[in-house]
Amino acid sequence: MSQTQEKIWKAIAPLAVLAILLLIPVPDGMPPQAWRYFAIFVAMIVGMILEPIPATAISFIAVTLSVLSANWVLFGAQELAEPGFKAGKEALKWGLAGFSSTTVWLVFGAFIFALGYEATGLGRRIALFLVKFMGKRTLTLGYAVVIIDILLAPFTPSNTARTGGTVFPVVKNLPPLFDSFPNDPSSRRIGGYLMWMMVVGTSISSSMFVTGAAPNVLGIEFVGKIAGVHISWMQWFLAFLPVGLLLLIVAPLISYCLYKPGVTHSSEVAAWANTALGEMGKLSRKEYTLIGLVLLSLCLWVFGGKVLDATAVCLLAVSLMLALHVVSWKDITKYSSAWNTLVNLATLVVMANGLTRSGFIDWFAQTMSTHLDGFSPNMTVVALVLVFYFAHYLFASLSAHTATLLPVILAVGKGLPGVPMEQLSMLLVLSIGIMGVLTPYATGPGVIIYGCGYVKSKDYWRLGGILGVVYIAALLLIGWPIMRLWF
């Protein structure tokens, strides 16, 4: 197949999927607009996987199409019949809502942190330091990336702030040291593997601790109010620890085998890094300033959560970076990766919200409850956890997924006789972080890592699918049996 034919096929495939789904009769009980919206959503996902045009353009087109056809795909007949309801105005408000999401701006702020590391040279200095001591083997360098994220996780309740704002800016400086560059065949030399290690690290660390990701706390609130199950910080940690330790050892190895980098070891590069560090000389004023801002941000993220939102902290840091001349506004306007990711995540957040807005999620919950009738309690637990976990393909945010679907799943489980709600509740909340590995838009750090251009779309979806199965299998086959010893 020629390149031209391949491009044509990739462009036709999402349209074909959309047409086929629209021709299929609406499932029983589902609002007609929900099925039509779901067809657009699935076509968008297919387009993002195949990328006939950039993924951000695909999600932008999907939102635009949904806004223009809102009377048909978003609003029900009853809503349209309400006096004073202005469909066009409401549709546009819905379509632009993603740009007011705090998660979207937190991700954008993380990109500006990365720019600061790059502009001051601090990122290169830290990267050279890591290569000097751990760069002789790519595998050990990958483990270092994962371990750094896990060490920061107990104290940083936002995985986007942690991985995107602290780890990513440093790791991003490593690949160029090995002549590996984004959006280039050389990305497979080492850059793709190291970037993927950040996805592995943040997904494990987000489930390892209650404070590893913001939606974990939300999940605990839901299970307390709906299921009457109260989970302490230590209970959470001990329940996931066996799974977390196993995944910490196994996930980087699996990734190394499935996505083996071109550079596996290089003692010469480690020696060169030592020389390059000497050539850089002492820390500059801008580097000291950036270090101070990073430490300030970490302190506010850890200790100031009740006073300042993580996004507000990030925006404060960016403002100080501008005021103190760490980066210039001109540099920010030229930083296309940040703006591209801002639009991409904002549109994906809106599209995921549309599944609820159109009535698809409510229908999904009712249908699931009907189909689970007659299952044994243990089979019901497995089914509910798997549905909750893999439903994340439909969401662009861990927080949105938790807020939308966790109450529904808990309510379904509570309504079925014999279901052990303590075990179900614990498995559901422990799966929140690890589901962040599934897709490029599954969580804030994933969007950042995908947006930097080292991991191709098809590779991200393939690796995410495989490791996603490994993660949930480890939780159900290893974590659950151990958990049952005290629940």
Automatic annotation (TrEMBL):
Signal peptide: none annotated. Its main location: membrane. The chain crosses the membrane at residues 7-27, 33-50, 57-74, 94-117, 193-214, 234-259, 288-304, 310-329, 341-361, 381-412, 424-443, 463-483. GO terms for cellular component: membrane. It is found in: Membrane. It holds the Pfam family Na_sulph_symp. Keywords: Membrane, Transmembrane, Transmembrane helix. The keyword Chloroplast does not apply. PANTHER family: DICARBOXYLATE TRANSPORTER 2.1, CHLOROPLASTIC. This is Citrate/succinate antiporter. The gene is citT.
